[in-house]
Structure formats: structure tokens, C-alpha cells
UniProtKB/TrEMBL annotation, chain A:
Any one Gene Ontology BP term: cytochrome complex assembly
Domain (Thioredoxin): residue spans on this chain: 35-176
Main localisation: membrane
GO molecular function, one term: disulfide oxidoreductase activity
Name this protein carries in UniProt: DsbE family thiol:disulfide interchange protein
SUPFAM superfamilies, per database record: Thioredoxin-like
Cited Gene3D superfamilies: Glutaredoxin
Key words, A-Z: Cytochrome c-type biogenesis, Disulfide bond, Redox-active center
Compartments it resides in: Cell inner membrane
Pfam families on file: Redoxin (PF08534)
UniProtKB/TrEMBL annotation, chain C:
Species this protein is from: Salinicola corii
Main location: membrane
InterPro entries named among the record's database cross-references: CcmF_C, Cyt_c_assembly, Cyt_c_biogenesis, Cyt_c_biogenesis_CcmF
Described purpose of this protein according to its UniProt entry: Required for the biogenesis of c-type cytochromes. Possible subunit of a heme lyase.
Annotated localization: Cell inner membrane
GO molecular function, one term: heme transmembrane transporter activity
Protein name as it appears in the record: Heme lyase CcmF/NrfE family subunit
Keywords (A to Z) from UniProt: Cell inner membrane, Cell membrane, Cytochrome c-type biogenesis, Lyase, Membrane, Transmembrane, Transmembrane helix
Region annotation (Disordered) ranges: 659-682
Family membership: Belongs to the CcmF/CycK/Ccl1/NrfE/CcsA family.
Domain Cytochrome c-type biogenesis protein CcmF C-terminal intervals: 320-650
Record-annotated Cytochrome c assembly protein domain positions: 93-300
Transmembrane segments: 12-33, 45-67, 100-118, 125-146, 182-202, 214-234, 254-270, 279-298, 318-336, 357-378, 398-418, 430-448, 454-475, 496-523, 628-648
């Protein structure tokens, strides 16, 4: 009998493997949590999109919950995302933009055309802040709490559904 | 976009394929270092770090913009005099463990690194068990069970001398 | 009018083939279980019919491609009216749907071959083998019909032209690579079917291994060639000169190869010695299961997909169900029916038996390592432990020592005798080989590269050890009575004649591995790579060669435009030659592609890829020297040839007579209930 059980081992191992493969099917292998979750927002020193002489740093994000959105004029999905960001601003969420690898001219035109939901947009032409945030494609959004700690990361564009289902609840959660 | 998706689809379905999400071109880029040792380390590092945006490519091979950013950062940190470990840490803190092709040994990966060694040890035990059990059997078959160690060695020497002559005849054609 | 009807014709033929596959799956197995000859005889005509209709179906799809019928979605997505005709024909397997059709066609081809070449098998055995293959075929045909129909129409909005075949696939390597690979993958279904038939028939003697061995060798040889072609293709087509990336998709093809290599050896032990019976059956199941697993990994997108690619989840689920049912059932049958008592043949520490056992263990460890590395990210993710990557550094770190260990024992294997081999005699026969191997390997890198290199020494050491021990073995085996010096020449010749093809197959296969190892060691350590900027008129020195760009022109291909650089390569004291790397832009798909210029040579390639046009008008170029890179594939071809050589051995052609004698015996009763423990142990 013991030997018969031994012969069952391959079957059992295979069953375990199938369970994992099945779970793998439902998962998106490209979806990853940011490595910066629960860590301080990286330090930066950047000018704003509107004013080349105005330098801002990390203290910008302290004091209240902020949604930092990385965007660029060159990014088509960013355009699709703007209505949702405007809606979030209407809900009273504080938004800060990072104009990533862009030119001032294009960035300003973009906001003129699609609306400006941001309290302020940081200008990051070399992508240094984007790099420190581990951004590998715009748009990406980071929710930062009142202490300047990253609490939630959204890759890809925020759909109208995401606004109500994900973003607003997260904002509420960290406002308390 | 449709063409891109289709293309990605193709790639996923190919029998043997490994490629970028961006273009079918390997990155060809010129990085200059003063120290030839740095060139070696640069090549080594860029082949060990994974492009976060691509399907399965090192940053050294990928043509995507984020890989180019990462290469530039690796080169800058190398010129800065940082160690390989420090540079890897810099990437991991931004892009997560995903960025390392060479997973570090920790609680999550001990099975990954340990199982092959464990299996070799188990395999050695299996061989030993087989031979010890079967040698007894063989001895019983051939009736030399009653011999002591000295007698057995003499017998072995005698039979091997005999075998050497007839060995060619016996052995040929027995290709595994 | 005829054009319009081809897809429907093909679809209909596919449905008929499916019906026949189901009959082939059910009737013969039932017939074998209830011992009805007529039902068992059903297997062959069904296999033939299925093959015929699949050929029809396949030709219909090919016709749709040849005739540019863009109303067929698959054609519209993978072809273009400008595509050269030969690529139109190979585009049939350029994407998912068509490649599964090819997969099934090849499977039915193997069934057909079994039914033709194995008529001498006992009737119930053949019925079971074909029945099992019928099950696999039904599963995949159903998969095609339900989720991946290549004949789907785009009506009424027929596109004016197709989206074109992926430029990477517009290449000779990709014409031949998938069919070879599938021949291998699918070919392992034959040995799987034999193992299952043996289990089901309660006939787990060594007879089945004898029948299955040639099939396994052929499938393994195809897989070897397929993998080598894939590697070669990646080398010259992807533009950065790598030949193995440890990508999940590559690993998917390496896994059945490793398991299949173990299987070839364990089949030998079981046939010759009647031992390791259960293990061999298990390996046969594993090998084919890994082929199926590879199919799943490649086509479901669990490992390589990016989020831009919305995979059809029904496909992944369907293949997983197929995989689960096939492998689960076969392992369950194995657990229930495998004999509990192993045959009792003894062997000593040093014997061919023990060395083959070690070979099997090491190959299985290698298989598990590759499998583990490939799916570990998936396992961790499944447990919610985050995403990690497992890449080349991991695989290289483990594969090199395991290969070294394997080769160490591999050198001993051919010289050792079955059952028992006195260590002193083995040492005496191999001492010279070992010393020569160590010394040569230690000195070689000094001469070649100017300094000592552990990796190169290890590679040469292993290769020389394999080669020299084989040479010694051939030398010993062709020697007759040493005293008879006068007739030495003649007896030596007679000795050569007496060695069988199977033996030479083994020698060639092992030599092939040695050649591949040399290739790996040399190209990994002496690879020279330089990324440079060049403008027309400029030149650069790399590895003793001077590369001068003498011209740059634009060119139009059938379905692309290209920038072609002309590079004049000179080396002091040698005549110069030109290389023409090209950067293409495919019009229909809008994709760029770098067409590498290669100067192949037995002892090294020159490799030049054209990169981007830089801001100041320079071009970036990647220039590489790839010493011994051809040896990689040369070795693989030798391995494959060895596998084939062993098959054409007389031994297998003699088979019909022998098993005709077997057939006169009453076939063993086949039972569907497992034997009771008392029966087995008694």
C-alpha cells in the first residue's frame, strides 16, 4: 500500500502545478505593485510648468492627501484620462501633475486644450522624477498621504469606473 | 495600436521568441567609459537588469525608452564609482525585485535556489540505495554472498582479468 | 467561386477529422478492453481518414493564403498581397490558429506513421496506441474548432489588403523552425501512447520499450534540430547576436528535450536489462506532458504576455483543461496500474546501469531546475508574494555545474559494462584520456586567448573528456586478440564493421554534445562586442579587423524599404571583403527590422548590425566577433544525426520477425481493474 501511495506523488505534484497555472491565467503578468508603496515620495527639486523660476520640492506634498499624476503631451491615453482627473478635482481631491519628458510649450498647450485639474504641474523634461518614481510609461498616478508617503499606485489610465471604485475610496481611506 | 497589439500577439504565440514590446530592434547605443573595467561591468549589469516595460528583455538588449533611461542611469552610477550591488539596489528601489534577473536569496527564493541542490543530494541517496540493495541481490544471485571482503576482491580481480579479453565481444552494440 | 469555398471546405474537413479522431479514440480502446478484433481494427482506417482530412483542411488554408483571400480573418491578419509567395505558404503557421492546425496535422501524421510501420505489433497494443493518440488529437481538434478556428470569415467587410506577416517571421529560419519543433513536441506523443497502452494492457514488460525506442529517437532528433534552428534564427534575426536567452518560450522547448534525453537513456536500460520499468513509463508521461505544458505556457500568455495584448482567456483555460485531463488521467492510470514489484537485477557502483541511473537523475534535476526557474515567478505571484524575475544569471549558475557533473559521468558511461565494472580497469582504460583532457584544457586558453580562463578550461575539459573516452572505447571495441599482430589491420577493420549503427549513433550523439559545449564555452568567453558610430567614409578597428563604411544607400524590397550600409572589412595580410547590414522598414505593418550582415566561419563569425541614424548623420553599428558560434548548432545537428543513426540500426528492422513470433502467443488478458496487491506481490 505504501508503494502505491508513492506512485501517487507525481499526480499530486501535478495537481498543485495545475492549481497555480489556473490562478496564473486569471492574473495579468504585467501588473505589478510599485516598489515605492509605503515609502516616502522621492525627493525632487523641479520648476513648475507655468513658471520656470519657481522651484518646488518634497514639502509640496506634505499636509494633505495628494494624487500625483505623471503625464505628457506625447501620451495619447493621457488625453483620455483628463476628464476623469477633472472629475476628481471636482470631488475636492488635490492633484499635482508631473509633466514627464515634455516641452513647456507642448505641456501648456495640452492643459489649455484638455483642461487643467492640477493645483500645480511639475516640469520634468529629463524624466528624473519619473525615473525615481519607477515610472515606465505614462500615465501613472501615485496617491501620497499627508506625511508624504506613497500609499497607492495606479498604472495606466484611470477609467471613469476607477474614479468611483478605486481612487475616491483610497483617497478617503488615507484622509482619515 | 491595432498593428502593435497584433504584433505582440504574434510574438506571444511564436514557438521560440523573445522580444521587446517596442520594436524588433536590439538597442545599439554607444556608451563611453574611460576605464575598460567599467565597460565590462556595464555590459554585465545591463544584461542582468530587466526592462520593466518589455516582455522579457534585459535593459541592455531593449530598445524601449525606459531601458535607455535605465542604461544611462547605470552608466552614470558606474562613473560615480558605485558598486554593482549599490546600482542594483538603486534599480530595485524604483522598479522592484522584478528588475533583477538574478533573484536574490531570501525567504521567498530559497526554494528556487535550494531545490536543485536538494535534488542532487536526494539523487545521490537514490543511487546509493539502489546500488546497495541491488548489489546484495546480485551477490546472492551469483552465489558469492558467503565470501569475505578479501575473497571477494580476489574474485573481482580474477573475473576482470578474464573479462578484459572477452569484453569487446560482450560490449559492442549496447548503445544506450 | 472556388476561392470562396476553400475556407468552408477546410472547416468541413476539420470537422470530419474531429469525428474520426473521436472514433479513433473510443472504438479501438473499447475493442481492446472487450477483446473484439473488429473494433480494434477500427484504429487504422480512422487514423488514415483523419490524416487525409487534416491534409485537406491544411491545404485549404494554404490555398486561402496563396490566393490572398482576405475575407478569412487569419489570412487578413497574417498576410499581404505584396508578401513573396514562399512566405505566404509559411505564413500558414505564422500565428496561433494556423500553428495549432499544423500541430494537429503533424500529430495525425505521426498516428498515420505508427499505423503503417507498426503493423507487426500485437493487435491490442496497436489499437491502444492509436486510441490514446486519438484522444490527444480529439482534444486539440476540439480546441481548434471551439476557440481557434483559422477559417473564421471577416464578412461582409472584407479588408482590401492584409496586415502582413510579422517581418521577423519573413525568413528562412522561421519557415523550417516551427514544423521541426512541432515534429519533436508531437512526436513524443507516440512514446507516451506506447507507455499508456502498456499500462492499460497490463503489459509492462520490456517489449513496449523496444517498439517505442525508434519513435522516441526520431521525435527527439526533430526536437533537437527544431531547438537549434530556433537558436540560429534568434542569433541572426534579432540583431544582437544572442543565441539562447532562457526565455520562458525557449525553456518550453528545452524542457521536453531534457526529459526526452533522459527517456532515451532509460528506455535503453529497460529494454536491455528489464529494470527501471516504472521510471521509464513515468518519464514517457513526463516528456509528453512537458510538451503539452510548453504549449500551454506559450499560448496562454501566463508568462510572456504584456498588458497591451488582451489574451483570449478561453484559449488558455481550454489548453489547461486539456493538459489537466491528459496528464492527470495518465498519472492516475500510472498510479493505479504500475506494477508494484520491480524486477530484481543487481548492479554495482560502477556499471552501465548505475551510470545511466545517474544520467537520468541529473537530467531530471536539470529539467526540474528549468521548470522551476520558468514558473517560479508564477508560483510566487499565485501566492501573492510579489513579482520577481528569473533570468539567464540563475539558469547559467545552475546549468553549468549540472552539465559538468553530467559530462563527468557521461565519459564513463559508454565504457562501463552492464551490472558491474571493476573500478581499477575503468581507471586504467581512462587514465590517459583524463590526463590529456586536463592538460590540454588547461593550456588551450593560454594559446587562444593569451590568459587562463576557468570557463574555457572547463568547457574544453568536459568536451575532451567526452571525446577521448569515446575514442578509447572505439579503440578497445575494434581490437581483437592482441597477440595476433600480423593481422592487426584486418582485424581492426573487422572490428569496425562489427560495431552497430546504434553504437555509432551513441558516439555521434555524445560527440555532438562535446562540440556544442566547446561552442558555448568559446563564444561565451571570447565574444567581442563593440557598439560604434560610423558615417560613410569612417572606419573602426575591432578585434584585429578594420571595418570601414564605404557607402550607404536606400533600397526597395518587395514589401519594405531599407537603408543598406556597405562595410569593407580588412585584416592585415588577408584579402578584404564587404558586408552589407541593412535596416528595413516594413510598409504594411510599419515595423522596423535590422537585417544583420554575417560572415560565417567554422572558427568564428563576424556579425554586423545596423542601428539607428544618429542626430549628426552618423549611424550606430553593433560589431561582434563570435568565435566558434557555429559549433553550437553543428553539435546539435550531430546529436540529431546520432539519434537517427541509432534508429536505422538493423536491430529495429529485424523487429517484424521477432514480434511475429510474439504474436502467436495469446495476448495477455487485458484488465480494466487494477491487479489486487496479492496478485502482484505473489
Amino acid at each position: 500500500m505504501k508503494r502505491r501511495l508513492l506512485l501517487l506523488i507525481p499526480l499530486l505534484l501535478f495537481a498543485v502545478l495545475v492549481v497555480f497555472l489556473y490562478r496564473g491565467l486569471a492574473k495579468d503578468p504585467a501588473a505589478r505593485d510599485s516598489a515605492l508603496l509605503a515609502r516616502d515620495f522621492p525627493a525632487f527639486s523641479l520648476t513648475t510648468l507655468g513658471d520656470p523660476s519657481r522651484m518646488l520640492d518634497r514639502s509640496l506634498l506634505e499636509g494633505q492627501v495628494t494624487l500625483v499624476n505623471v503625464w505628457g503631451e506625447w501620451c495619447p491615453t493621457c488625453k483620455q484620462e483628463m476628464p476623469q482627473l477633472l472629475a476628481l478635482a471636482d470631488h475636492g481631491v488635490r492633484l499635482v501633475g508631473v509633466d514627464y519628458k515634455d516641452t513647456r510649450e507642448n505641456g501648456r498647450r495640452f492643459l489649455d486644450e484638455f483642461g487643467n485639474p492640477f493645483e500645480v504641474s511639475l516640469f520634468d523634461p529629463d524624466g528624473t522624477l519619473g525615473f525615481d518614481l519607477g515610472v515606465y510609461g505614462a500615465p501613472e498616478s501615485f496617491l501620497v498621504d499627508a506625511d508624504g508617503v506613497i500609499r497607492y499606485h495606479h498604472t495606466g489610465y484611470i477609467t471613469p469606473q476607477d474614479v468611483d471604485d478605486v481612487i475616491l475610496p483610497e483617497v478617503k481611506k488615507w484622509q482619515q | 495600436m491595432a498593428a502593435m497589439t497584433r504584433w505582440l500577439m504574434l510574438i506571444c504565440l511564436l514557438p521560440i521568441v523573445v522580444l521587446s514590446g517596442a520594436a524588433a530592434l536590439a538597442a545599439i547605443e554607444v556608451q563611453d567609459f574611460d576605464d575598460p573595467a567599467l565597460i565590462q561591468r556595464y555590459e554585465d549589469l545591463t544584461s542582468r537588469l530587466r526592462c520593466p516595460k518589455c516582455q522579457n528583455e534585459s535593459i541592455g538588449a531593449s530598445n524601449s525608452p525606459i531601458a535607455a533611461d535605465m542604461r544611462a542611469r547605470v552608466a552614470a552610477l558606474l562613473r560615480d564609482g558605485q558598486s554593482d550591488r549599490q546600482i542594483e539596489n538603486a534599480m530595485v528601489s524604483r522598479f522592484g525585485d522584478y528588475a533583477l534577473y538574478d533573484p536574490r536569496l531570501d525567504t521567498r527564493t530559497w526554494l528556487l535556489w535550494g531545490l536543485p541542490f536538494g535534488l542532487v543530494v536526494i539523487g545521490a541517496c537514490v543511487v546509493a540505495a539502489f546500488v546497495l540493495r541491488r548489489r546484495r541481490l546480485e551477490d546472492r544471485e551469483s552465489g558469492i554472498d558467503g565470501l569475505d571482503e578479501h575473497e571477494r576482491r580476489r574474485l573481482e580481480a580474477l573475473t576482470s582479468r578474464h573479462d578484459a579479453g572477452s569484453q569487446a565481444r560482450r560490449n559492442d552494440g549496447e548503445a544506450p | 467561386m472556388l476561392i470562396r469555398i476553400f475556407p468552408e471546405l477546410g472547416h468541413f474537413a476539420l470537422i470530419l477529422a474531429f469525428a474520426m479522431a473521436v472514433l479513433q479514440a473510443v472504438v479501438p480502446l473499447w475493442g481492446a478492453a472487450t477483446r473484439r478484433p473488429l473494433w480494434m481494427a477500427f484504429a487504422q482506417p480512422m487514423a488514415w481518414g483523419q490524416f487525409t482530412f487534416l491534409i485537406l483542411s491544411y491545404l485549404s488554408l494554404t490555398a486561402s493564403f496563396a490566393l490572398d483571400d482576405f475575407s478569412v480573418a487569419y489570412v487578413a491578419n497574417n498576410s499581404n498581397s505584396l508578401l513573396p509567395w514562399y512566405y505566404k505558404l509559411s505564413a500558414v503557421w505564422g500565428s496561433h490558429e494556423g500553428s495549432v492546425l499544423l500541430w494537429v496535422l503533424i500529430l495525425s501524421g505521426w498516428s498515420f506513421a505508427v499505423s503503417v510501420f507498426s503493423r507487426h505489433l500485437p493487435r491490442d497494443m496497436l489499437a491502444r496506441v492509436l486510441g490514446v493518440m486519438g484522444w490527444i488529437s480529439s482534444g486539440f481538434l476540439l480546441f481548434i474548432l471551439l476557440t481557434s478556428n483559422p477559417f473564421e470569415r471577416l464578412l461582409p467587410d472584407v479588408p482590401a489588403d492584409g496586415a502582413d506577416l510579422n517581418p521577423l517571421l519573413q525568413d528562412f529560419g522561421l519557415i523550417v523552425h516551427p514544423p521541426m519543433l512541432y515534429m519533436g513536441y508531437v512526436g513524443f506523443s507516440v512514446v507516451f501512447a506506447f507507455a499508456m497502452a502498456a499500462l492499460l494492457g497490463g503489459r509492462l514488460d520490456s517489449a513496449w520499450t523496444r517498439w517505442a525506442r525508434p519513435w522516441t529517437n526520431v521525435a527527439w532528433a526533430f526536437l533537437t534540430v527544431g531547438i537549434a534552428l530556433g537558436s540560429w534564427w534568434a542569433y541572426y534575426e534579432l540583431g544582437w547576436g544572442g543565441w539562447w536567452f532562457w526565455d520562458p518560450v525557449e525553456n518550453a522547448s528545452l524542457l521536453p528535450w531534457l526529459a526526452g534525453t533522459a527517456l532515451i537513456h532509460s528506455l535503453a536500460v529497460t529494454e536491455k536489462r528489464g529494470t527501471f520499468k516504472n521510471w521509464t513509463v513515468l518519464l514517457a508521461i513526463f516528456t509528453f506532458s512537458l510538451s503539452l505544458l510548453g504549449t500551454f505556457l506559450v499560448r496562454s500568455g501566463v508568462l510572456t504576455s504584456v498588458h497591451a495584448f488582451a489574451n483570449d482567456p478561453s484559449r488558455g483555460t481550454f489548453i489547461l483543461v486539456l493538459l489537466g485531463v491528459t496528464v492527470g488521467l495518465s498519472l492516475a492510470i500510472f498510479a493505479l496500474r504500475a506494477p508494484k514489484v520491480q524486477s530484481l537485477a543487481g548492479f554495482g557502483w560502477l556499471s552501465r546501469d548505475s551510470l545511466l541511473l545517474i544520467n537520468n537523475i541529473l537530467l531530471v534535476v536539470m529539467t526540474v531546475t528549468v521548470l522551476l526557474g520558468t514558473i517560479y515567478p508564477l508560483l510566487l505571484d499565485g501566492l501573492g508574494l510579489g513579482k520577481i524575475s528569473v533570468g539567464p544569471p540563475y539558469f547559467n549558475a545552475l546549468f553549468v555545474p549540472l552539465t559538468a557533473l553530467l559530462c563527468l559521468f557521461m565519459g564513463l558511461g559508454p565504457l562501463a559494462r552492464w551490472k558491474r565494472m571493476p573500478g581499477r580497469e575503468l581507471a586504467r582504460r581512462l587514465a590517459v584520456s583524463a590526463i590529456v583532457a586536463v592538460v590540454t584544457a588547461a593550456v588551450l586558453p593560454l594559446f587562444y586567448g593569451g590568459s587562463f580562463s576557468l570557463g574555457v578550461t572547463l568547457g574544453w575539459l568536459l568536451a575532451l573528456w567526452l571525446v577521448l573516452s569515446l575514442v578509447r572505447d572505439v579503440f578497445d571495441k575494434t581490437r581483437h586478440g592482441r597477440s595476433d599482430k600480423a593481422r592487426k589491420g584486418r582485424t581492426r577493420l573487422a572490428g569496425f564493421r562489427k560495431l552497430t549503427l546504434a553504437y555509432w549513433g551513441m558516439v555521434l550523439g555524445h560527440l555532438g554534445l562535446a562540440v556544442t559545449i566547446v561552442g558555448v564555452a568559446m563564444v561565451s568567453h571570447y565574444n567581442v562586442e563593440r557598439n560604434v558610430r560610423l558615417a560613410p567614409g569612417g572606419s573602426v578597428d575591432v578585434g584585429g579587423y578594420q571595418f570601414a563604411m564605404t557607402g550607404l544607400r536606400e533600397r526597395r524590397g518587395p514589401n519594405y524599404t531599407a537603408d543598406t550600409a556597405t562595410i569593407e572589412v580588412t585584416r592585415p595580410g588577408r584579402s578584404s571583403f564587404t558586408m552589407q547590414p541593412e535596416k528595413r522598414f516594413y510598409v504594411a505593418s510599419g515595423m522596423p527590422l535590422s537585417d544583420v550582415a554575417l560572415r560565417p566561419g567554422l572558427f568564428g563569425d563576424l556579425y554586423v548590425a545596423l542601428g539607428e541614424k544618429l542626430d549628426n548623420g552618423d549611424w550606430s553599428l553593433r560589431i561582434q566577433l563570435k568565435p566558434f558560434v557555429r559549433w553550437l548548432w553543428l553539435g546539435a545537428l550531430m546529436m540529431a544525426a546520432g539519434g537517427i543513426l541509432a534508429v536505422i540500426d538493423r536491430r529495429y528492422r529485424r523487429a517484424p520477425r521477432r514480434s511475429a513470433a510474439l504474436q502467436t502467443h495469446e495476448p495477455m488478458p487485458s484488465r480494466l481493474v487494477p491487479p489486487s496487491p496479492t496478485e502482484v506481490t505473489s
